[in-house]
Amino acid sequence: MTVSNHDLLVRPATTADAGPLIGVLAEAFHEGPLADWLIPDPADRRTVYYRYFKDAVYHGLEHGQVYTTGDQTAVAIWYPRLEPAPVDTRSRLATLEHIAGPYAPKFVLLEEMFDAFHPDEPHHYLAYLAVDPTRQNQGIGAALLADQHRRLDQLGLPAYLEASNMRNRRLYLRLGYHAGPTIVLPTQGPVIWRMWRGAPTSGGRSPFPRTRPHRRSL
């Protein structure tokens, strides 16, 4: 389904959109405390991020829901998580080692921490939201989210995400998310804010669910 939100066209992405959307993700996430922690060298980061987000886009197109704008300047990658998702740990470890090389251990640690604190309650998971840096602060990301939020409210489902900086945390709070317990990455890593937009209820929205950390080993 294609949706027009004022002057912004929001539509499902296809494989034909992959190239531009990989670039949007790599550029949008290139700066910030998480990027600095994952790959301190900016030149190496650009190379690794392109490979990492290429994997993310194609995985989202195959297994999730990917939305973009008419001009391909923004992208959202969602995954329905109606039950706990199994993870092929050996395959993922091999993929991360191929993508990140010497930086793979921190990518492994990041994904392991995210998985360990992921809620079990049925929801849709916003894995990535990115807007071309030259088009940020124009309400594009908020419009892209609003499109999915309408669908989730119709389904009676909540949404979950991790925010990696205060700017994004403030955006999600404005859009109806609530902050839950944080994740603090080890080895002097940054704080990650776990965010929850509850399902509509007669009294408002469902609260942030209790999460029992579950471990997996990569």
Note down, in words, how this protein is organized:
By secondary structure, the protein is α+β, with helices and mostly antiparallel strands. It has one domain (3-160): Gcn5-related N-acetyltransferase (GNAT) (Aminopeptidase, 3-Layer(aba) Sandwich), CATH 3.40.630.30. Helix content is 41%, strand content 23%. The chain has seven helices and eleven strands. The strands form two sheets. Strands 1, 2, 3, 4, 5, 6, 7, 8 and 9 form a nine-stranded mixed β-sheet that branches. Strands 10-11 form a two-stranded antiparallel ribbon. Strand 1 (3-5) and strand 2 (8-12) form a beta hairpin. It is globular and about 50 Å long. The protein starts with a strand and ends in a 13-residue tail after the last strand.
What's the number of structural domains? 1
Number of strands: 11
CATH architecture: 3-Layer(aba) Sandwich
CATH topology tier name: Aminopeptidase
Task: Determine the structural class based on helices, strands and strand pairing.
Answer: alpha+beta
* Count, helices: 7
Question: What is the helix content?
Answer: 40-55%
Write down the Rg: 17 Å
Q: What ranges have pLDDT less than 50 throughout 5 or more consecutive residues?
A: 1-6
Mean pLDDT: 92
> What is the distance, rounded to the nearest whole angstrom, between the alpha carbons of the first and last residues?
37 Å
Gross morphology is globular
Largest sheet: 9 strands, mixed
Provide the CATH top-level class. Alpha Beta
| Fourth-tier CATH superfamily name | Gcn5-related N-acetyltransferase (GNAT)
Strand content: 15-25%
Domain N-acetyltransferase: 8-198
Organism: Micromonospora maris
Pfam family, one: Acetyltransf_1
GO molecular function, one term: acyltransferase activity, transferring groups other than amino-acyl groups
